[in-house]
Amino acid sequence: MKMISFMPKFSLRICLTISIVISGCDSDNNSEALAKAVKLESQRAKGTIIEKVTIIGAMTRLRVGEVHQLTALGIDSNDDERDVTTELAWSSSDTSIATVNSKGLVEAVANSTEPQGKVVITGTTINGILAQGEMSVSDSAISSLTLKQSNPISGDINTCIDANIVADVTYEDDYTSLNVTKYINFSVDENTTATIEDGGILHTSNSEIENTIVSGKVNNISNQLTVTADPKNLETIDVLVDDKVVNIITLNVGDRIILQSQVNLVSTISETPINIDNNISLEAKNSELAGITLNGTTKGSILALKPGVTQVYATCGGVQGNATLEIKGDATLDTLLINQGEETITIKANESVEISVTAQFEETIADINVTEFSEFTYSKNDLISSELVSAGTSAANYKIISTSNTTGEVFLTVTYDGESSLVKLIIE
Question: The whole model's pTM is what?
Answer without folding.
Answer: 0.81
